[in-house]
């Protein structure tokens, strides 16, 4: 049976995030899950893999369990499958940020851009006055991106601030749409731009993964593959795995 993979995040106040680490590790270990979870004051960000029943139990715990006490009632969730376990071990880490930008004004719990459902994304980015930005690093962009999107040429998300300072102006760029793998980086980037006076800022809800999951290939403006942070390396439309050498030889 294939493994189920759940990618999830939510920006929410977790002042007790340090105390959550070991109980969460115990829950995941008990469910025989592998992968990684980041905990910080601003929320949670993780990708875990295991049996379908175990993943369902994890999601129930996140949403309704006593550990998070209702603070993760609406996490952004994406599900995919893997023919083999895509992680080597379980890691629960404490961080300053669940996605590192290094600017306290970028707080999606206070203000954020406009969420755009995958079904509406094609029309949005086709608008002639829309600046479309891929917020991922250059390696990820090289594997695949949306037609017409700008590659900021960054090595890590923390460099997005420098890109914005050099190339983006609120008075000139009135409409900006951004995207990333699962939605977390572009959500934080939209909060960053809103804090700096950009008028209309949009981001793809659920990221590329949600788009590839729901938008048929025949209607897609995506080109290439989407890099994922596990042993599968990259996914295509329908969140299909890149074929292994043995599969491609069949």
Automatic annotation (TrEMBL):
Q: Name one Pfam family in it.
A: UPF0176_N
**Matching CDD domains, A to Z?**
RHOD_YceA
**Origin superkingdom:** Bacteria
Q: Name one GO molecular function term.
A: oxidoreductase activity, acting on paired donors, with incorporation or reduction of molecular oxygen
Q: Which GO terms describe its biological process?
A: tRNA modification
Q: Which reaction does it catalyse?
A: uridine(34) in tRNA + AH2 + O2 = 5-hydroxyuridine(34) in tRNA + A + H2O
Q: Which residues form the Rhodanese domain?
A: 126-220
Q: What does this protein do?
A: Catalyzes oxygen-dependent 5-hydroxyuridine (ho5U) modification at position 34 in tRNAs.
Q: Which PANTHER family match?
A: RHODANESE-LIKE DOMAIN-CONTAINING PROTEIN 7-RELATED (PTHR43268:SF3), THIOSULFATE SULFURTRANSFERASE/RHODANESE-LIKE DOMAIN-CONTAINING PROTEIN 2 (PTHR43268)
- Name this protein carries in UniProt: tRNA uridine(34) hydroxylase
């Amino acid at each position: 049976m294939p493994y189920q993979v759940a990618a999830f995040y939510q920006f929410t106040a977790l002042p007790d995030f340090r105390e959550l680490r070991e109980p969460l590790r115990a829950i995941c270990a008990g469910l025989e899950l592998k992968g990684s979870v980041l905990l910080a004051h601003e929320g949670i960000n993780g990708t875990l893999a295991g049996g379908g029943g175990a993943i369902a139990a994890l999601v129930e715990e996140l949403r309704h369990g006593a550990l998070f006490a209702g603070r993760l009632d609406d996490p952004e969730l994406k599900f995919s499958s893997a023919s083999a376990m895509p992680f080597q071990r379980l890691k629960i880490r404490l961080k300053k940020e669940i996605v590192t930008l290094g600017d306290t004004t970028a707080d999606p719990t206070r203000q954020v851009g406009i969420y755009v459902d995958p079904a509406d994304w094609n029309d949005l980015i086709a608008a002639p006055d829309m600046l479309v930005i891929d917020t991922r690093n250059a390696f990820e962009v090289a594997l695949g991106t949306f037609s017409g999107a700008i590659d900021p040429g960054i090595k890590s998300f923390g460099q997005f601030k420098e890109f914005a300072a050099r190339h983006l102006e609120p008075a000139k760029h009135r409409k900006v749409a951004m995207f990333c793998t699962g939605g977390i980086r572009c959500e934080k980037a939209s909060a960053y731009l809103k804090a700096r006076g950009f008028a209309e800022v949009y981001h793809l809800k659920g990221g590329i993964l949600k788009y590839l999951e729901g938008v048929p290939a025949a209607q897609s403006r995506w080109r290439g593959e989407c890099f994922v942070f596990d042993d599968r390396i990259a996914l295509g439309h329908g969140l299909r795995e890149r074929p292994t050498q043995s599969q491609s030889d069949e």
